[in-house]
Amino acid sequence: MTLRGVDADLSAIVARATQVDTSRRHRTARLLAQDVRAYSHGLRVSSRTYSLPALMSLWIRRNRRLATVSMSMLLLLAAFAAYATRSVVAAKNRAEASRRMEARAHARAADERDRALLAQAKLVLDRDPTSALEVILRAPDSADAALVRARALGEHRADRTLSFVSPVAGASFAPDGRIAVASLDRRLYIVDSARQERTSAATDLAESARLARDGDGWWYVASARGNAHLRHTSMQISVPLPGEVNRLLVAGPFVLVLLEDHTLLEVTRDGVAKAMYEDVTSATLRPNGTVVLCTGSNNLLRGHASSSVFATDGSCDAQVAPFALDSSATALVVPLERGDVLVQIGDTTRRHSSRAGTFVAAAAADVVGLIDSAGEGYFVDATGRLTRGFSHQSRATGVAANGKVLAWSYSDGMVFVYDTADGDSWAIKAHAGRLGHISLASEGTRLLTASSDTVRVWSLDRGELQAVTSNHCQAFNVAVPTRKPTQVATDCASGGVVLHDLTTATSRTVHAHRQLSFGLTWLSRTVCSGGWDGAVVCTDMETERSWTAAQHDTPVRWITSDQTTLAYITADGGVWVNNLETPSRKVATIDEEPYRIAIMADQLAIATCSGQLTWIDRASGRVLRSDAHQGPITDIVAVGSDGVYSASHDGSVARWDAGTLRDRWRFDGPVRYLRPLGPDSFAASVSQRTLALVQGARRMTVDIESTITGLTNIGDFLVLSNVDGEIISIDRANGRVASVDLHDGAIRAIASIDAETVAVSTATGSMYRLRPSSLTYTSFPLSTKGNTQ
Q1: CA distance 438 to 685
Q2: Among 262, 354, 687, 755, which is most exposed with the fewest C-beta within 10 angstroms?
Q3: Residues 583, 22: Cα–Cα separation, whole Å
Q4: For 429-458, what is each residue's pLDDT tens digit?
């Protein structure tokens, strides 16, 4: 029982004392008195059972001062703990913020370092790819870095790089890999290129620094007390010479010296020099000892190194041509007036003129290499035919030949190497500066290049590129027949259609239009082209018969085919078909200006400059129109029996099935080139420089940093070209990328030849074959996002 308004202890005493049951009361009056006294003194009473709060309350009442002090202390401790906790948390937050700021600063610094490395690599890549790879390998994985790394890997890299303090004046290869290097500080070094060890062989070279390899050593011209001496690196011999040396000629046991005063000397192995002939402007020595001279009176003389008797063998003009006679065991190059040359290979002798200038350098081996003042390289084979090799917009500096391999060098550090036997070619950015010397060794499998301060050795393994043919066709398109993919056709701005035979490495014009030729296709063994002269011209490649299949009053805009029928469009809106056996039949006329046509099993699809797609049923002629895009359609590609992909300048790509829109993808810029890769999968060029890879809702984009000029694919390899002459191959299955730079002008068109090879046509008129699987790849982390609209 609890009494209201009465203290709990007192209420408990009263309740116990007044219990009805006497057994539950205090047993004695003394116990009751003790409870009352305890209550009056604030102590615990026996009549009550205390809870923990009740005990605390009782203690506080008895010890009010102590409780007050304790409570104050507890409050102070609590306040201090709260403050300390807040301080610790604040300090932790500040430390965390500081760490985040430091991490951001490190990230910014790393990003700036990576951008600097990337910028440095890009800068060095244009000048010296061998050094650029060392820079880019220090950059982390990113799409941009991967592309630069692929470009550095795609460039040919030197096996050995030898640096010299003094500028290099000349260099010469030995078959065992040793190199003799003459420097302008009058030192001669012998370098073991495999071990990269060098020894000083002489310190008294003449200023002319003439070198000639002989056996296991080199002849060189030294200067002693102001006089010229002929010496050898591995023989104790020193032959005084009566004047300054223009050229050293060494072959077999014979050593000839042409002096600056036009005297030709023979030097014997016992150290005697005797005059052979005077008034010699140029001379060459063949391995069999035959000597050919060009004299000041422009006579070409022939004799033998063991005799001073020479017979007239024609005329020459070494005063006009700025290069000397050059010969090998089988070939001879003779300079003639007006910069022409006379080339003798075996029993064949022909005179040749440069197309764009005058010849300025030559080299003879089993084939003859020439280069002219316009930078165009040529070669002459055993038939005596002059064939254009490489063209480069830089001043020519030299030609080298070994066996059937030729190399042309230029003042910007570029070297182009071509194996005339199998078509392998190499475009090498050898040095950042001017090339002073090149030579080929080991039957054309090794190249030596020298700049002002660096000598480099290059291995010429089988190239992934093959230079097939060279002509002056500026192609718009490449067409490959399914029956014979070794024959590739190109349409030319000049109006011609050129056939490139990839087997024989020849090209010829098979037919021509009166105006620009644009658009071509194969129908079985026949190649047909459309022209701006309104004609459709065809050539049967087996019978070589050419004929005009159709003539119209307006230009033919595009032409395509399937296995049995040609389909083409004319500028007046006409849509035509032709089976090559009967005259062309107009199947429809469209009101809009046509741009492209695609042929399918049951339909024709015509893309227009206004963005409209027109569908024509091939059987009934029924015409349907779709407002496909809001801008000009730039590409249209048939897929399967009734599917079509279309791309537009409005920045969209659409997929159509039997004339019905199925999907549409939108991009941030105009779409130009389109290449279907599979169901709901395609590649496209966006805003000229960006490559977009789409697989359903997944999208991957890459900035190519150059205007894309073509797209094709071989299996999992997507191959694209750009205006800088670069081919980029993306291995979509393995996330890898590779690059190769042709260094031969902008690429105009590319097309798949077969399951392994791509045909590449450049603005200079060259045709190449490329095997994407043979390129050097690097990992390629592509950015992805799902944003199909």
Answers
A1: 40
A2: 755
A3: 136
A4: 888 777 778 888 877 788 888 888 888 888
The pLDDT assigned to 615 comes to 93
CA distance 518 to 570: 12
Confidence of residue 787 (pLDDT cuts 50, 70, 90): very low
- The Cβ-side half-sphere exposure at 164, using a 13 Å CA radius, reads 28
- Count CB neighbours of 722 within 10 A: 22
| CA atoms in the 13 A half-sphere facing the CB of 592 | 18
pTM for this prediction = 0.71
Report pLDDT for 636: 95
Among the listed residues 772, 178, 264, 107, the one whose alpha carbon sits nearest the alpha carbon of residue 457: 178
Whether residue 145 has pLDDT greater than 90: no
> pLDDT tens across 239-260, in order?
999 989 888 988 888 899 999 9
Question: Residue 31: how many CA atoms within 13 Å on its side-chain side?
Answer: 11
Q: Do residues 265 and 293 make contact, with C-beta atoms less than 8 angstroms apart?
A: no
pLDDT at 691 over 70: yes
The domain 670-789 is placed in CATH, from the list 2.40.320.10, 3.40.50.2300, 3.30.360.10, 2.130.10.10, at: 2.130.10.10
Percent of the chain with pLDDT strictly greater than 90:
29
Which of 323, 328, 327 is CA-nearest to residue 340? 323
- Tell me if 699 sits within 8 A of 724, measured CB to CB: no
Place of tokens 């050795």: 457
Are 364 and 380 in contact by the 8 Å Cβ rule? The answer is no
Find out whether 495 and 505 touch, Cβ atoms under 8 Å: no
For residues 688-696, average pLDDT: 90
Q: Which residue has the tokens 């260094």?
A: 743
At 549, the pLDDT band (50, 70, 90 cuts) reads: very high
CB 310 within 8 Å of CB 302: yes
Joined together, the tokens standing for residue 391 give: 């063209």
Domain ranges in the chain? 8-62, 67-154, 158-239, 317-463, 670-789
CB 555 within 8 A of CB 571: yes
Nearest residue to 488 (alpha-carbon basis) of 762, 751, 756, 720: 751
Determine the distance from the C-alpha atom of residue 16 to the mean position of all C-alpha atoms in its chain, rounded to a whole number. 105
The DSSP letter of residue 175 is: T
pLDDT score of 49? 67
H helices of 364-506, where?
Answer: none
In 3D space, the residue among 583, 588, 600, 598 whose CA is nearest the CA of residue 628 turns out to be 598
C-alpha 752/C-alpha 775 separation (Å) is 16
Phi-psi region of 68 (alpha: psi -120 to 50; beta: other; left: phi over 0): alpha
The answer on pLDDT for 637 being more than 70 is yes
* Residue 713 pLDDT exceeds 60: yes
Q: Which amino acid is at 572?
A: D
| CB atoms near residue 507 (< 10 Å) | 21
Residue 402: DSSP 8-state: E
The percent of the chain in helix, strand and coil, each rounded to the nearest 5, is 15, 50, 35
Which residues make Cβ contacts (< 8 Å) with residue 80, sequence separation at least 6?
A: none
Judge contact between 549 and 580, C-beta under 8 A: yes
Which pLDDT score is estimated for 323? 64
CA-atom Rg of the chain in angstroms: 44
Spatial CB neighbours of 535, under 8 Å, sequence gap ≥ 6 = 513, 514, 548, 550, 551, 552, 556
**What average pLDDT does range 639-646 have in this prediction?**
89
CATH topology of domain 317-463: Methylamine Dehydrogenase; Chain H (2.130.10)
